[in-house]
Write a structure and sequence with these properties.
Blueprint: H1 2-28, E1 39-41, E2 47-50, E3 53-54, E4 64-67, H2 76-86, H3 98-108, H4 121-129, H5 136-153, H6 155-165, E5 172-173, H7 175-183, H8 192-200, H9 213-232, H10 238-249, H11 263-274, E6 287-289, H12 294-311, E7 318-325, E8 331-335, H13 362-371, E9 381-383, E10 400-402, H14 404-409, H15 413-423, H16 425-434, H17 460-471, E11 475-476, E12 491-492, H18 496-506, E13 529-534, E14 540-546, E15 550-557, H19 569-585, E16 604-609, E17 623-628, H20 657-665, E18 681-686, E19 691-693, E20 705-713, E21 719-723, E22 726-731, E23 737-740, E24 744-751, E25 762-766
Parallel strand pairs: 1-6, 4-5, 19-25
Antiparallel strand pairs: 1-2, 3-4, 7-8, 7-15, 9-10, 11-12, 13-14, 14-15, 16-17, 18-20, 20-23, 21-22, 21-24, 24-25
Helix pairs in contact: 1-5, 2-8, 4-5, 4-6, 8-9, 8-10, 9-10, 12-19, 13-15, 13-18
Length: 767
């Protein structure tokens, strides 16, 4: 009775074990393969990189493999060679070859002088998909899985899967990938000699590594035996055999392509591929052609390194450059640093690192003001201290009244911040977000008016894309990185009229005077719009320039965000951008192209006086050509102009009240306009109403002063400043007054002596 119970228990255990084994086999009887890994090329077919995946046989060390390309159709010659060597009775057995098993057992008992394996194609698939220690249990599992695979998927699917998984050394898996990797040709075009060499490698990919001399020798030797075996089995004829033997005997080592000196671009594409943002058109041919031009990439890299060496003594450590083709938006070059291996933060991709953009955001301030009707090309802007909230120009000077064209081309800080005040911080912050220059979720008050001069960080890549919207008539599109990329539809962020006006401002060499002299790095022998930028403390130097064919962005700085020795955008980055643009166009010394950017549609060219913005009658001195609407052409007026006098005296200027102080400071007599009525208009321009002022406790009391300024029209001889309801000072209305800063809330007003006329009160808080 006990024996029967024991036998029943053993039988039950065997049944449970069989059920569990069958359950395990059913779970493993699947065709598993990593996704096909792409090979990326430049636009001309030069190798760029390939993207690997975690190995099926990963042992925890992060092993990466390549290939796993599915086959669109089974390559006949490769199939015949593979089956002749690996599984002669593949089409006849159920996944396990009994004859091969008997032969292998007989050999292992020592009955035969040589040994051969009994693994079929299906068994090798099971082992590659689920690696396990060798042994009887492992072999039994492989055999059972092979039978289940054959029954479930059929022989053709198994063969195609095997040719996708089989290793060919150096991380290459699958015959389709190996053909491209070793011989740079499709698998269908492999010769018998090349097939024999590849068929020899999987037996021992390390020992028969064809990239090493001894490995190639072993692979060739085994490949010769492969050819003889194929002939013996009537797979190839005598003539093909003789030719293949000769070709294999002299076969040179394969020379797989190596990554170029463009590691940041390689890393970018690797990340894009892993995120699924780069995809081949066909899974069976995962080759991807990028838009990069490695010839341009190498040329620009060389220029960047050469110029950087000139500026290292001034503290510059790194440089980044992007080149984009117009109007396609294709990225032709992407240099993230001077050298990835440079210990001075070379591994950082500075084309994607957020930095202070300096004045490169100013064109978008002007663009939004034009777009909203807050600015016209004929307006006169004040490059003066009043209303600038303590913001000065980079050169420490003020140029007085300026046309918008001149103010932007000269990159003056004060007009830009005053325009930003008119546009509004919230509107500007949102517009910069719409342009893709940032994705911050914070209050624009964090940046304040200094947003116009670089306090809002962005990247070179974002900046280049935003400038492309200016270059492409106000359409913001994606940068294109590879053929077949499906970009989002371009979004109109500016009218063509505004975009072309800004382009004309930045492409006018006369408008850049006097800040940027003629024939410097901002001037070209063909139409180019240029904007430079320098962040506070000379930490970053920028230039973005575009012609009709290309857009070039340059950044220069340090990995630690430290200061450089007065390296400005125009003095450094603009020189590199200039060299890159000339090389791209193939320009030679003396070349000169008589062409311009397309003008804004529906506007006419008019000569405007720099002083006053009126149309020149030929007597107003310096002029600028401006594009204005026919209905808005200003009248001819030479009165507000510094015309020379026979006696050599400086002429009297008729200027707005806000510019009178500047004119007198510059030594011009001011011609007072006759009053149209008895009413006197008074406006306090500094400080601003409802502003909060922080007093520096370390500033000596004698130096803690707040500048009080007013505009009075028509001019009067004197005004009285009232502070907190008490008279404080009597002054010339055009002259500033200094008030000693005191903590607390304060109220300012300007009145006329002995008259009730007064300004609107201005309230501030000093903390």
């Amino acid at each position: 009775m006990v024996v029967r119970r024991g036998a029943a228990f053993v039988g039950l255990l065997a049944l449970v074990g069989a059920i569990l084994f069958a359950w395990q086999i059913a779970g493993e009887a699947r065709l598993i393969a990593p996704r096909a890994t792409p090979i990326l090329y430049d636009r001309n077919g030069a190798f760029l990189t390939e993207v690997g995946v975690r190995s099926l046989a990963d042992d925890g060390r992060g092993r990466i493999d390549y290939g796993y390309w599915p086959l669109e159709r089974l390559p006949d010659r490769v199939v015949r060679a593979t089956l002749a060597l690996e599984d002669r009775r593949f089409w006849d057995h159920p996944g396990v070859d009994p004859i091969a098993i008997v032969r292998a057992v007989w050999q292992n008992l020592g009955a035969l002088p040589y040994r051969s394996g009994a693994s079929t194609v299906a068994m090798q698939i099971a082992r590659m998909q689920h690696p396990a220690p060798r042994g009887i249990r492992g072999k039994a599992r492989e055999a059972a899985t092979a039978i289940a695979l054959t029954l479930r998927f059929g022989r053709e699917a198994l063969l195609a899967h095997y040719l996708r998984l089989v290793p060919y050394g150096n991380g290459s898996h699958g015959v389709a990938h190996a053909a491209r990797w070793y011989f740079d040709k499709p698998v269908e075009d492999l010769s018998w000699a090349e097939i024999a060499l590849l068929c020899a490698v999987p037996q021992s990919p390390t020992r028969m590594n064809p990239l090493h001399a001894d490995g190639l020798e072993r692979a060739v030797s085994r490949g010769q035996r492969v050819l003889d075996e194929l002939a013996r089995r009537h797979v190839i004829g005598d003539a093909e055999l003789a030719l293949a033997h000769r070709q294999l005997a002299v076969m040179p080592p394969p020379h797989p392509s190596r990554r170029p000196d463009a590691l940041h671009a390689v890393i970018r594409f690797d990340a894009m591929a892993r995120l699924g943002r780069v995809a081949a058109a066909r899974q069976t041919d995962p080759r991807i052609r990028t838009t990069l031009d490695l010839d341009i990439q190498r040329q620009v890299t060389g220029q960047a390194r050469r110029f950087l060496e000139l500026w290292r003594h001034s503290g510059a450590e790194q440089v980044a450059v992007m080149v984009v083709e117009r109007p396609s938006g294709k990225v032709l070059a992407d240099i993230g640093s001077s050298d990835y291996r440079d210990r001075r933060a070379g591994a950082v991709d500075f084309s994607r690192a957020p930095r202070s953009p300096g004045s490169t955001l100013k064109p978008f301030v002007y663009a939004l003001a034009l777009e909203r009707g807050l600015l016209e090309p004929t307006d006169v802007l004040a490059d003066l201290p009043e209303g600038s909230s303590g913001i000065n120009n980079a050169d420490g000077h003020f140029l007085g009244p300026m046309l918008p064209r001149q103010a932007l081309a000269n990159s003056r800080n004060v007009p830009a911040t005053n325009l930003l005040r008119s546009v509004g911080l919230e509107a500007m912050f949102g517009f910069l977000r719409d342009l893709g220059l940032h994705d911050l979720e914070t209050s624009p008050d964090r940046f304040g008016l200094s947003m116009a001069i670089g306090s809002l960080p962005t990247t070179l890549e974002r900046l280049v894309r935003a400038y492309a919207a200016l270059a492409e008539d106000g359409r913001l599109g994606d940068l294109i990185w590879y053929d077949g990329q499906t970009p989002t539809a371009p979004v109109r962020v500016l009218s063509p009229d505004t975009a072309r006006l800004i382009t004309s401002f930045l492409a006018d060499p006369m408008a850049r005077l006097p800040t940027f002299p003629r024939y410097g790095p901002t001037e070209y022998p063909f139409p180019v719009a240029v904007k430079t930028g320098t962040s506070q403390g000379y930490r970053d130097a920028w230039t973005v320039a575009w012609s009709k064919r290309y857009l070039v962005g340059v950044w220069l700085g340090r990995g630690d965000a430290g200061t450089m020795a007065q390296l400005s955008g125009v003095g450094s980055a603009a020189r590199l951008a200039h060299a890159v643009m000339l090389a791209l166009h193939g320009a030679r010394p003396g070349d000169l192209e008589d062409a311009t950017f397309p003008p804004p549609a529906g506007r006419v060219a008019v000569e405007l006086c720099m002083f006053g913005g009126r149309r020149s009658g030929g007597l107003c001195g310096p002029t600028l050509t401006e594009w204005v609407r026919p209905d808005d052409v200003p009248p001819v007026d030479d009165a507000a102009a510094p015309r020379p006098r026979p006696d050599g005296e400086r002429p009297a200027l008729t200027v707005p009240a806000v510019h009178r102080a500047w004119a007198r400071q510059e030594g011009y007599p001011v011609a007072l306009a006759p009053a149209a009525s008895e009413e006197v208009r008074i406006l306090i321009v500094s400080p601003e109403h409802n502003s909060r002022i922080w007093r520096n406790p370390e500033t000596p009391p004698a130096l803690a002063r707040l500048v009080l300024k007013a505009v009075v029209e028509p001019r009067v001889d004197q005004v009285v400043w009232y502070v907190d309801g008490e008279p404080f000072a009597v002054s010339d209305p055009d002259e500033p007054v200094l008030w000693p800063v005191k903590p607390g809330a304060h109220r300012f007003q300007v009145k006329l002596p002995l008259r009730p006329d007064g300004s609107r009160p201005v309230q501030i808080v000093v903390e």
